[in-house]
Structure formats: C-alpha cells, structure tokens
Q: What sequence folds into this?
C-alpha cells in the first residue's frame, strides 16, 4: 500500500514537531516506528509519526518521566556547571542547583542542561562573576594565567606551577575538577602506571567498544561511558599502561584487517572514543574479550 502522505512531508513533520532527523526512509504508515535521531540530545529513537503529530513528543530519553540514575544525573549536571542541592525529581522538572561559575542558586531542568546546553540564566545575563575571583580560583589549583580572563568556557592560556609547562584549561573545568593540566594532571593514561582494558556494549546504538584507562586517574573513564548508556562487559588489568595500549591496538588492528570499520561517529560519542567502536551485529563483546586475552 502506498504511503498516505509524501515521505518528504512526513520527514518535515518529524523535524518540525519532534525535533527529530529521520535516519531511514519513511515506513509508510503513521503508526510504524521510524528510526530517527533526536536533534537536542543526539539519541537514536524510534517514534511513530502519529504520536508526534498528536503532540506526545518524539524522544523517550527527554520525556519528563524518562528513567535516569540519580547519581549519573548529578554527575552530568556537574559536567555542565551545576552542583545539585536536592534529590533528583525528573528530567523535565526544575532541579535546585548552585552554579559553579559564580555561585548563583538556580533551578534548571536536567533535559535543558544536558540536551540543549542550557546554562546558568544569571551568568548568561550578567557574566560569570568577578575576574579577580577567576584568577584566584586558577591560582588556588596551581595555574598562573598568562592572559586576561574571558569567560568560564574558553581556554585560558596559563602556566602550570607544578610542571612549569603551558596549557589552556577552562575555568569551568578548573572549578569542577581541580587540577586540569594536560601535562601533569592524572587524567589520561600513564604508560608506566597500572592500567586496565575494558570492553563495553551499547544496546541502543548497536555498538561494542574496546578501550583502556589508567587505574590511578582522577576520572573513571568507564563510569563516564556508563552515564552515556554503555554497559561494561569485562575488564583486564595490566601492570603498565604501555602493555594495555599494546593489546588494545593489536585487537583493533586485527579487526580492521578483517574489514570491520569504525562504527560510530564522533558526533554520536561526544565524550570521545568513537574510533574504537565496532558493529555489535558483526563483532561481539565476547570476541573482543577473546582477542584481547589471546594477546596476553
């Protein structure tokens, strides 16, 4: 049966009313699930046109009653510059918080903050606070600014007084994370320190991933991936980061040689790591683990 409306009209309706970009041709019927990407939050969704036309919304992840782990939600708010002050009530409800940049007490909605890059309304109107306080905050964690303060989100050319090297941390990261020197902060992988290799899966994206992280880093990379829908399958510990890196790269090289390309794009993985992803329908988490164990 031919579709009741032109596919171009259906796609335009989905974009206009659902903020959703179709990822496949129109299925032809209004009640059929239609694979799309929700433009505000970048999640892959399967709304039907009938619900969207009736005003029900397209994205289950941005709905007011969407399930969220409260701890992960609080961590996501902190990443966007807010310290939450009360328990999580839902993605579409005001959440009493303190703005990290200037200390303002505000009540942004989780979905606005994480899906639409919503910031502190006072900072947007009045700026991020006193530049002298900004400099003091940088000095408190070991940075000496080398240029005038711009705003909390721009790289700020500074000298790290611990390692005496130049870097450009953002004030927002300094205020939420503390030490942010790209040269000496313990975030990344230290080749000589203990590390682990991990295997993850993402059901919604149909992807699997391999990666490595240090055991003594300030940020738990696996936990951060979990906050974006990834589920840990297995981990292997290594005496050094160099050993973990060697095994990871060997596994990736073997699979690329078999014709398995990078599966997800950088836009689908805003926290990085897309180059180590594979199509779950062709490469299982079990195979990733088996290949890694074979290199030990």
A:
């Amino acid at each position: 049966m031919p579709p009741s409306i032109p596919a171009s009209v259906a796609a335009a309706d989905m974009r206009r009313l659902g903020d959703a970009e179709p990822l496949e041709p129109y299925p032809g019927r209004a009640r059929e699930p239609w694979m799309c990407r929700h433009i505000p939050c970048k999640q892959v969704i399967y709304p039907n046109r009938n619900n969207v036309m009736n005003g029900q919304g397209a994205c289950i992840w941005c709905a007011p009653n969407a399930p969220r782990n409260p701890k992960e939600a609080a961590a996501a708010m902190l990443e966007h510059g807010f310290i939450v002050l009360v328990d999580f009530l839902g993605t579409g409800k005001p959440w009493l918080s303190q703005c990290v940049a200037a200390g303002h007490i505000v009540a942004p909605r989780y979905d606005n903050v994480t899906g639409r890059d919503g910031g502190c309304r006072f900072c947007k109107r009045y700026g991020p606070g006193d530049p002298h306080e900004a400099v003091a905050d940088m000095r408190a964690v070991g940075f000496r600014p080398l240029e005038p303060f711009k705003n909390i989100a721009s790289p700020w050319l500074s000298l790290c007084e611990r390692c005496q090297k130049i870097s450009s941390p953002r004030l927002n990261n300094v205020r939420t994370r503390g030490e942010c020197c790209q040269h000496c902060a313990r975030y990344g992988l230290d080749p000589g320190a203990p590390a682990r290799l991990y295997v993850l899966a993402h059901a919604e994206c149909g992807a699997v991933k391999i990666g490595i992280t240090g055991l003594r880093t300030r940020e738990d990379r696996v936990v951060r991936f979990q906050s974006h829908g990834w589920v840990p399958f297995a981990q292997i510990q290594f005496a050094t980061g160099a050993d973990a890196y060697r095994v990871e790269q060997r596994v990736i090289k073997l699979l690329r040689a078999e014709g398995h390309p990078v599966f997800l794009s950088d836009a689908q993985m805003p926290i990085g790591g897309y180059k180590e992803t594979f199509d779950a329908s062709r490469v299982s988490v079990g195979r990733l683990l088996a290949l890694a164990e074979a290199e030990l």
Notes: The CA atoms of residues 11 and 204 lie 22 Å apart. The chain has ten helices and 13 strands. The chain has four domains: 7-53, 70-125, 130-177, 195-294.
